[in-house]
Amino acid sequence: MCKPSNLVRAAAVALAILAATALPSCKRMTGEKQSHADQLYIQVSALGGLDYFYDHKLGMELAGKALGVQTDYVGPATYDMSAMVTALEQAIARKPDGLVVVGFEDSLNPIVDKAVAAGIPVVTVDADLPQSRRVAFVGTGNVRAGYEIGKKLSQVVGKGKVALLYKPGQSNLEERRQGFKKALAENPQIEFVDEGNTQSDPIKAAQAAASLLQLHPDLAGFGCIEAEGGAGSATAVKEAGKVGQVKVVSMDRGGEVLKYIQEGVIQASVAQQTALMPFYAVQILYNLRNNPAPISTDNAKAGVSGAPVTVDTGVIIIDKDNCSLFVRAAATPPAAPATRPASAPASAPATGPTTQPEAQK
Asked: Fewer CB atoms < 10 Å away: N or C end of the chain?
């Protein structure tokens, strides 16, 4: 038989063991989370000055708040790949926990591979770099998006000649062009006659559309598979006095596009769920960093990424009936830059909001 003092001592040891083993489960039951407030995830892009990239910035901001991490959006306001590479170099120097990159061109492959070699995982969004060492791609199924634009244009035109407005050479847009032409081919009463280069600039898009209207005075419709083509073609149609005569089906949900839909100049727009792209990209990077899934006994040796290869964020048709639901509230001014050790190099000028966990603000 144990002595009372021994019983007390044994009970104390048992309680200590129970408390130590129960603490993690208690944290799980109460929803308490380990803080990751020091983690930083950066999106690097170009064309940040376009209205379309508002939702990219919003997605990064929402991801930071949801996960309790720091996020940043950097890169040039225009389509400048040299400046984007510089922004990527500077982002790598900050040693973030992950990078979100819009893969405009294959010329970005080497810098993406450099980031991965430095131990920084990369997820591409919106436009992919499949030949790079990126972990995953999150974005619109671009062939399908182009198909939906062509299908809708075919429906609203019914019969006649149509033209396409886009920026040639960009991988995601070339995929949309493929889907667009496939949809048109399904309607023998639609004749595809020409293309115009928007150069991702609304003024140049309007000029390209005006030229096409002069070359093809009997044109019945414009299909626009990138953000600036819709507003540009609508401007040209309105100035030519052909509203209603020349139909327009646009891409995305920019303020000008929505205004022209409400006015009846644009008949519909195929909008991407753009904010979901960086939102889910950051979640993939966050899970790789904090919650790696043991697909094998050793994912690295087995060549298992532990992440989905592709996430399709889908599209939505916007027309006069639902247009008002997509008008954005006024954008809030960018937050203060994310904190990092003073020794870390400064990033390229940010063109969007930076978020920090509430406790760090």
From this structure: N
With contact defined as beta carbons under 8 Å apart, do 32 and 54 qualify?
no
Unique residue bearing structure tokens 């376009």: 50
What is the side-by-side strand order in the sheet with 122-125? 70-74, 40-44, 98-101, 122-125, 136-139, 310-312
Condensed to tens digits (0 to 9), the pLDDT of residues 147-157 reads 999 999 999 99
Please, which residues bridge with residue 219 across strands?
A: 161
The distance from CA 101 to its chain's CA centroid, rounded to whole angstroms, is 9
How far is it, in rounded angstroms, from Cα 288 to Cα 320? 42
Mean pLDDT, residues 57-66: 97
Amino acid 216 reads: H
pTM: 0.77
- What is the reported pLDDT for 329? 74
Q: Tell the burial category of 287 from Cβ atoms under 10 Å away from its Cβ (0-12, 13-18, 19+).
A: middle
What average pLDDT is seen over the chain?
A: 86
Q: Quick one: pLDDT band at residue 356, thresholds 50, 70, 90?
A: low
Helix (H), strand (E), coil (C) string for 158-203: CCEEEEEEECCCCHHHHHHHHHHHHHHHCCCCEEEEEEEECCCCHH
Task: State how far the Cα of 242 lies from the Cα of 264, in Å rounded to an integer.
Answer: 11
Distance CA 180, CA 143 (A): 8
Spatial distance between the Cα atoms of 41 and 96, rounded to a whole number of angstroms = 6
- At 171, the pLDDT band (50, 70, 90 cuts) reads confident
Query: Which tens digit of pLDDT belongs to each residue from 222-247?
Result: 999 998 899 999 999 999 999 999 99
* Angstrom distance (rounded) from CA 153 to CA 146: 11
